[in-house]
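Sequence in, structure out. Go.
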Amino acid sequence: MNAILLYTREWNGNVSFEFNLYDNQFATENLAVRKVLMAMMDSVRDRLDRLMIEYNDGMLAEKMGAKKAGELLRFLGAAKDNLREHKENGVVITRSFETELTGEKYDFFYNLADVARIPHYRMKEGDEDRVVFYYSRYLQLIAPAPAADKFLGKLSDFSLPYRLVPIGGQV
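Output:
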């Protein structure tokens, strides 16, 4: 297996690792992609306490059926009091919500067979993004140095060779 590419940069005292799905040419259900997400989550597990989900109703219903999509969103914490609509020209394009990241929700994402089952999610430490999946474009870890080292160790534990590609300077 060729090494996966991880774009890195230092950012606000953290290290950012970005796994670009296009550059790595993997499908979102590929085991290597799943291992990247698992390693990211493992490295900051003790820091994660919030979950943000963004989705498009039609796309989610088409992907898994309206009933299952509704059940999944409720399981993940969607409720009338935390839903936000994102509109363009008066039309709802996406909806989002933020909620507590419980152990059950953590396990759901950790065990995903397809990391794109939910199109956009952010696992957070308070208001700080830690693990981000953005619309089948990339997975990103934003971690303090000790967690960054743990992430690279987890990739090695998963026998997933990687190559770090520094981008830009410090931000």
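Check: The helical segments are 21-24, 31-44, 57-64, 66-76, 103-110, 145-157. The first strand starts at residue 4 and ends at 11.
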